[in-house]
Amino acid sequence: MDINHLFESFAHAITFWVVFPVLISLGIFLSIKLKFPQLTKISYGFRSILKDDGKGQGNITHFEAIATVLAGNLGTGNISGMAVALGTGGPGALIWMWVMAFFGAILQYSGCLLGGFYRKQNDQGEFLGGPMYYIEKGMKKKSLAILFSVFSLLTAFSCGNFVQVNSLSLPLQEIGWNPFLISLIVAAAVGYVIIGGGHRVALIASKVVPFMATLYLLVAFLILGYNLDKVLPAFSLLFRSAFDFSSIFGGAMGFGMARALSTGFERGIFATDAGTGIAPILQANAKAKSPVMEGIIAMVAPFIVLIICTLTGLVLIVTGAFEVPGLKSTLMCTYAFEKGVGHEMGAYVVVISLILFAYTTILAWAFCGEKAVEYLFDRKKISFFRWLYVGLIPIGVFAKVDLVWHLADITMAGMLLTNLSALAYLSPLIIRESEKYFGSKEFLEIDHLDETEQETA
Predict the structure, then answer these.
(1) φ, ψ of residue 428 in degrees (nearest 5)
(2) Of 1.10.645.10, 3.40.50.1970, 3.40.50.720, 1.20.1740.10, which CATH number belongs to 8-456?
(3) In 41-197, which ranges are continuous DSSP H helix?
(4) Taking the model in full, what pTM does it have?
(5) Which residues in the chain land under pLDDT 70?
């Protein structure tokens, strides 16, 4: 058994037997207890971002905070990750991504609520938050907080660095770029920004994320419009592939359903980062009036990511790209967009979007890695981490595609399971603070309820 197959088998086993049941169980429990805020409060989250008055303790606005979270989410997982999902788990993997994102949103909410509740300020005036702090302060488990921070560091290198660089380098190598030159350019661009610190990451994310998302969505909608007659059959294929109950108890198709489920959850976790604990770290410095507000705003990100993932998956299906032998990762996406647009410009849109997606994701994960280093050691070690993070970028360019993805899945599963243990333990606090805020005057006013509706509520 080669190393790649070993990592793949281990990653799928963790997802299917551990991550899936734990995430679903906790997601259902919190959804019921909190009365499904991912449905009833999501519009409030969007309005809070749009009507941010800039008040509250923190150094970045809600828009900059959510843009930074999306910078971490909207990476290669939304483009290359969908090709990996369909290539490994089949079209049904996308349905399980929806399930994961729906219940992942409540975990995102819970984590950011706790992050705001237990955040602290360092001597630089920055607010620090995330699972390491609410595990230490809320659970009183310093060793578990250290373990989460170690997993965060490993994931920053595997998911935030190697996978992103690997995916953006593939199409550039395809058109003749030298791999070493690619690694130097990416390293220089990343090194320039992370020396500027966390606020520069938020500033760049708030400028780049809206542009790159709009560009990508417009072209994806254009392709689906050209292939409108294939969209409904594509949805039918998704559901047939995801729920093949006729042979769930055995046989090749039963295995296929299990693979679709595990792959869908792996790619869903990778694309949305929901439940992993990255969002509470990235949003800790936002100008928050209430920890619950930060939780509600955090739910916006998984739904935006899910829309982009769904459009990518549909484009891969309606163009037939997922059935073309030999196409993997980014190359499948460039083929699909070029065929869908009917011109090589389609492929360039993917390349440009992917570069921007990957670049902001690399920056966001570098920020998370810094916060893990600050927790484990002190701020003096952050400089060393930055140089190491930039110096290891060439590994992503030359590494095997499948290997870096499986490595990222394993390290991210470690973050997820550690964080979920904290969310489960602190769920009484999450429920109590949520109920208190949802009945408060502040919430009712922002939610545009008149006096009569307030009395009824």
Answers:
(1) -60, -40
(2) 1.20.1740.10
(3) 42-50, 62-73, 80-89, 93-117, 131-134, 142-157, 164-174, 179-194
(4) 0.85
(5) 1-2, 4, 7, 12, 52-56, 72-77, 196-200, 202, 205, 244-260, 266, 270, 401, 444-457
